[in-house]
Specification:
Chain A: Pfam families: MoCoBD_1, MoCoBD_2. The complex is a heterodimer of chains A (711) and B (164). With 711 residues, chain A is an alpha+beta fold. Chain A is 31% helix and 24% strand.
Chain lengths: 711, 164
């Protein structure tokens, strides 16, 4: 059955089978009704919709359909349903949903898009059930529903002093007809949203419960490790697995595509057998080195055929007539995602179906790939998501899922593929390196009247975001890019493109402000106020929201007023949220040290204050760490760093304090998994510039002139 | 060649490990890291694999009360030492650090946290009232890729303040 016909079937079943159909527009399938099955009711469980079931024992089960990678969705989603339900949060059990297109849409973790996508749906799911529970109580008490209220898992009729817990009403309520429209709470009445609600898995995490993909076990399951070509551009020529097959615990060695899989009974035995494989490779594409990339970037900036993304005014005249021209180039290296749980996945390919279990940010893609490899239709393939030890975009790719499917198919057994850290760091996919050239034209008054940005990316498509600030605020503007196709595998890395673009742009604007003789904060405010008064072309960000975070960050950091503190400013709009940051560098024993980052954040309504605070802090730590130290280099197609000894991840002794302030504007929430990261690199770079007088135009900063002699 | 040489000199052997006060007989190659014996042979999965070269600390366990990186400790070197994993840190999951981790809401993805807690537990045993700098110095051996370091630091301070 196809997805849509399955959806129709669910709908029809719900309408004809005595089940509950929620009558308003759910926008496609998400939170569509679940047939109230006699079986569940016999077990004391009433299903209200895709998200929510209430038990006669007052237990409340809320499903979180999106992959949890540490962004806190498994807490935040149920929190929203529980808010509108007026549930007793201590009775709520949250469950990770499996992939199910009949019940949910957008079961993806990426683009900081889950909360904005599902906000209304989650609220309606809770509010509708609350409405039905009130209806059931009113019917039982023979009073008007309008006289009933709810609080912490109970319906009250205050006039008669009666109350009933949800559990007593659940089954009767689930049989009532759902309303077409339902009234949602006034945000000022929120009791859970906006408070600090702890991660629902805290206790399991602190006690070491096996929740992650790498922990998954099935009796009879085999372990596989994959030997991939050691360099991008090589392809498999021949395999001699005679020695490996003789090793203890080894069941088989199989080959697919450019990969050789060693399959056995335990991880260590498989790893040791892998070491005695004799494999020959041959060249299939260019074997690129980082030195080649540097040369290609510089060449394409000048000689490439750029694709124009946005053009305003007369750029040539603006630069010809300029009083001052500022030009700078910024470059960033390849980065590995390095989630602490290495890639792994479980697959069991049978004749009649496929079972997939593990960490993925895109379960739908995993299923599609499995279907392509096996020829088994998607509706015979199940995907369950485990808790995931980080993602950062790496688990958007399905390469490691494909491997598990190939191996299970070839050895005809349930298989868990496990990558070592070396596999994880050298096997792709990466945030690709990029180089930007900026040019700004100033008039005599110090106004930026011309702005040019050219990006040279690798497999990046368009490495610019042509509609972001300062577009709309500059009369003459040209944004274009050139792409270099590389055999090195690349993909989205937390805040794709903007993770480096924001740094380069906001560090460059610091240079422009200085050349214009203006305070960096005032410079940005002027540009935005000009854009508000007279926009140049379409403005695709909210000027007032951007101004508000700029002013809040300036206020909270006491911008320009602290003695002995070198401050750097940065602001960026990405993934629908606005974040301004001030980096603060002080001299410690004569060396510049990043001490603080003050962040002002507008993500609309803050759903879970505790989780959100940590997303911002973690984003700043991540942004600082990779800007300072992150550097993956290549020699003849082979990554030169393969573990944390060579690829440096920020540690506790290297973090700044992070002071987070949210704008309270009551606007529907936007995402926060990514937006705090992009502005950080420039806040840090600009603060170091103030302290040292040296611009940091290349990442990682640690290799720059300003850090010579400082470890 | 070096690998084949190494293979020849590793051999299967029987060990009787004491883990979380229980005895586990295992038969594995003598160079198998304790991490993989715990995970694959014994089925204790709370100890995590992160790097395999003692760089990240996700695999931290206690050996006679001392924090060690189990990913580089061959099973043959364990001897009669008592191994404690996150599952055995407390009987009811109520070690002051485990409680502080929940109270402070430390975890994002959670993958590194068992190793963080095990490192901190051994540290607090020797130094029950540490300074912030001592906490930072000790915990800088453990990576948290999500960047929960501020809360790890705070949770250790909370646990230390509640321990007498």
């Amino acid at each position: 059955m196809t997805t849509s016909s399955r959806r129709e079937f669910m709908k029809a079943a719900a309408l004809t089978g005595g089940g509950l159909f929620l009558g308003f527009n759910w926008n496609h399938a998400e939170a569509s009704p679940v047939v109230v099955s006699g079986e569940n009711i016999a077990n004391g469980l009433a299903d209200f919709n895709s998200y929510l079931s209430i038990g006669t024992d007052n237990s409340i089960t809320i499903v979180s359909p999106n992959p949890e990678i540490g962004q806190g969705i498994k807490t935040a989603f149920p929190l929203v349903v529980a808010e509108e339900l007026d549930a007793d949060w201590s009775k709520v059990k949250t469950v990770q949903g499996a992939l199910d297109n009949s019940k949910f849409e957008r079961q993806v973790t990426g683009g900081s898009g889950a909360v904005p996508h599902s906000w209304d749906r989650l609220r309606k799911a809770g509010a509708t059930a609350r409405y039905l529970l009130i209806g059931a109580a009113a019917k039982q008490w023979k009073v008007p529903a309008s006289e009933c209220t709810t609080d912490t898992g109970k319906v009250f009729h205050k006039a008669s002093g009666r109350s009933l817990p949800y559990g007593d009403l659940a089954i009767a309520a689930s049989k009532l007809e759902a309303p077409k429209e339902v009234t949602l709470k006034d945000p000022k009445d929120f009791k859970l949203i906006g408070t600090e609600v702890a991660n629902v898995d805290n206790h399991n995490i602190a006690t070491g419960k096996p929740m992650f993909g790498i922990d998954f076990h099935r009796d009879g399951m085999l372990i596989a490790q994959i030997q991939r070509p050691k360099a991008f551009g090589l392809k498999l020529k021949s395999v001699d697995a005679v020695a490996a097959k003789k090793m203890p615990g080894i069941v088989d060695v199989v080959t697919f595509e450019n990969s050789v899989a060693v399959v056995g009974k335990s991880t260590w035995e498989v790893k040791k057998a892998r070491e005695v494989l004799n494999i020959e490779y041959e060249k299939g594409a260019d074997l690129e080195s980082s030195a080649d990339h540097d040369r290609i970037f510089k060449d394409l900036l000048v000689n490439g055929q750029p694709k124009v993304h946005r053009k305003e005014g007369d750029i040539q005249a603006a630069f010809e007539e300029a009083d001052k021209i500022i030009t700078a180039e910024y470059q960033c290296p390849f980065l590995a995602h390095s989630p602490l749980e290495p890639m792994n996945f479980f697959a069991h390919v049978r004749a009649d179906g496929v079972e997939l279990i593990g960490p993925t940010q895109t379960p739908d893609r995993a299923r599609g790939e499995a279907s392509k490899i096996t020829g088994i239709p998607a509706d015979k393939i199940t995907v369950e998501m485990t808790r995931q030890g980080g993602g950062f975009g790496r688990r958007l790719a399905a390469d490691y899922v494909r491997e598990a499917v190939f191996v299970s198919k070839l050895v005809k057994a349930p298989v868990k593929v496990i990558w070592t850290r070396e596999d994880d760091m050298t096997g792709g996919t990466y945030r690709p390196a990029v180089r930007y050239r900026f040019e700004a034209a100033l008039n005599r008054a110090g106004d930026m009247v011309g702005y040019k940005l050219r990006g040279v990316g690798m497999n990046a498509g368009n490495p610019t975001r042509e509609d972001n600030f300062p577009s709309g605020a500059v009369p003459n503007l040209l944004i274009d890019s050139v792409d270099h196709p590389s055999p090195i595998t690349t993909g989205p890395w937390r805040a794709p493109i903007t993770n480096f673009l924001a740094y380069a742009e906001q560090a460059f604007l610091d240079e422009v402000a200085e050349a214009a003789g203006k305070d960096p904060v005032q410079f940005r405010i002027e540009l935005l106020e000009n854009a508000k008064a007279k926009p140049y072309g379409e403005v695709k960000y909210d000027i007032d929201r951007m101004l508000a975070v700029i002013r809040l960050a300036a206020e909270k950091s006491q911008w320009g007023k602290k003695k002995g503190v070198h401050q750097g400013f940065s602001v960026y709009f990405s993934h629908r949220s606005y974040v301004a940051q001030v980096g603060e560098v002080v001299a410690v024993s004569g060396a510049p040290v990043l001490k603080n980052v003050i962040a002002a954040v507008d993500c609309g309504i803050v759903v879970n204050k505790g989780g959100s605070l940590q997303q911002v802090r973690g984003g700043v730590v991540d942004g600082t760490g990779h800007a300072m130290y992150g550097n993956l280099t290549f020699k003849d197609g082979a990554p030169q760093q393969n573990n944390f000894d060579g690829f440096r991840i920020i540690r506790m002794n290297e973090i700044p304090e992070v002071d987070v302030h949210f704008v309270d504007n009551g606007i529907a929430p936007t995402g926060l998994g990514e937006p705090a990261l992009p502005p950080t690199g420039a806040a840090v770079a600009n603060a170091f510039y103030k302290a040292t007088g040296k611009r940091l135009r290349n990442q990682p900063f640690i290799l720059e002139e300003a850090f010579k002699g400082i470890s | 060649m070096l690998n084949e040489f190494k293979q020849k000199f590793s051999k299967m052997a029987k060990y009787n490990l004491t883990v979380n006060k229980k005895s586990y007989p295992v038969e594995v190659a003598d160079d198998t890291p304790l991490l993989w014996v715990l995970r694959d042979s014994i089925g204790l999965l709370g100890t995590k694999f992160g790097c395999g070269m003692a760089q990240c600390g996700a695999c931290t366990v206690h050996l006679d009360g001392t924090a060690v990186r189990s990913c580089v400790l061959p099973v043959s070197a364990v001897g009669n030492a008592e191994v404690t994993t996150i599952e055995g840190l407390s009987e009811k999951g109520d070690h002051p650090l485990q409680e502080a981790w929940c109270e402070v809401d430390v975890a994002q993805c959670g993958y590194c946290q068992a190793g963080q807690i095990m490192t901190a537990a051994a540290f607090l045993k020797d130094n029950p009232k540490p300074t912030e700098q001592e906490i930072v110095d000790t915990m800088s051996g453990n990576i948290c890729r999500c960047g929960t370091y501020h809360r790890i630091r705070e949770a250790i301070q909370v646990a230390a303040s509640k321990t007498h």
